[in-house]
Design brief:
By secondary structure, the chain is an all-beta fold. It contains no helices and 11 strands. Strands 2, 4, 5, 6, 9, 10 and 11 form a 7-stranded mixed sheet that branches. Strands 1-3-8-7 form a 4-stranded antiparallel sheet, with no helix packed on it.
């Protein structure tokens, strides 16, 4: 069973930056990334990256966030800049693999709060 370990959430002022990390026990032929969920809202895509380096971002990101990965460390990073109060949410790491063995696994979530 693939396991995830997240880190990097916290409190930051508007306009500030945070970097999230997510480490998987294995990152091969799969897609890893973050989704977020604010109170009363549905979970939405933030950014994903494949083990081959292809990236995808949510529409709201608008160049403010950058996802990257270090395959040797089985770790994906989400650099978040120009944070806004609307970015406050629980950020969940996810890893999924479409080919056998298939899996779709979520981390426990890390809180990001943007407030002055």
């Amino acid at each position: 069973q693939v396991q995830l370990s997240e880190s990097g959430g916290g409190l930051v002022q508007p306009g500030g930056s945070l970097k999230l990390s997510c480490t998987a026990t294995i990152f091969s032929a799969s897609t890893m990334g973050w989704y977020r969920q604010a109170p009363g809202k549905e979970r939405e895509l933030v950014a994903t990256i494949t083990s081959g380096g292809l990236t995808n971002y949510g529409n709201f990101v608008k160049g403010r966030f950058t996802i990257s990965a270090d395959n040797r460390k089985n770790t994906a990073y989400l650099q978040m800049d120009s944070l806004e109060p609307e970015d406050s949410a629980v950020y969940y790491c996810n890893i999924r693999r479409a080919m056998t063995p298939r899996y779709n696994i979520w981390g426990q979530g890390t809180q990001v709060t943007v407030s002055s």
